[in-house]
């Protein structure tokens, strides 16, 4: 595990001067799939809370939350570059988004299959009633995001 000087990290929620192609590359490297830069710009611009972490000017961690201000905040798209994983950055991003979401009656998080234990350590519990419709239902089923039935 690489040592990280916390003082070298720069935290921001600003979209100004964000390179959407750099963000796309972070998701690909994380690996959380191929996300179109224009789609990311729309998603992050429409999110109430967002978090960007830079190390030496390089984007190394991100996350966002859609929130209505009172009832529900939905944390999603949390990603950390592999070079910076295992140092607690993902936990810090989620903690910051949780803090920003304080006051909402519920905070929901959508996780990549297999990452549930990580989020359980942060206080999240599996919902028994969550359901979804995906653009590509068959692919979502194959990747473990949906169950039969």
TrEMBL record:
Gene3D superfamilies: 3.40.630.30. Pfam families: Acetyltransf_1. GO terms for molecular function: N-acetyltransferase activity. The keyword Metal-binding does not apply. One of its GO terms (cellular component) is cytoplasm. The keyword Acyltransferase applies. Keywords: Acyltransferase, Transferase. Residues 10-146 form the N-acetyltransferase domain. This is Acetyltransferase (GNAT) family protein.
């Amino acid at each position: 595990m690489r040592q990280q000087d916390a003082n070298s990290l720069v935290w921001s929620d600003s979209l100004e001067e964000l390179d959407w192609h750099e963000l796309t590359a972070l998701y690909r490297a994380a690996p959380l799939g191929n996300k179109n830069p224009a789609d990311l710009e729309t998603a992050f611009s429409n999110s109430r809370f967002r978090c960007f972490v830079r190390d030496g000017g390089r984007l190394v961690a991100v996350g966002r939350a859609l929130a209505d201000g009172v009832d529900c905040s939905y944390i999603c798209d949390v990603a950390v570059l592999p070079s910076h994983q295992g140092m607690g950055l993902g936990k810090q991003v989620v903690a910051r988004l949780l803090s920003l979401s304080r006051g909402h009656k519920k905070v929901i998080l959508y996780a990549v299959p297999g990452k549930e234990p990580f989020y359980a350590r942060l206080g999240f519990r599996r919902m028994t009633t969550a359901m979804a419709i995906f653009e590509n239902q068959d692919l979502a089923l194959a990747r473990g995001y949906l169950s039969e039935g």
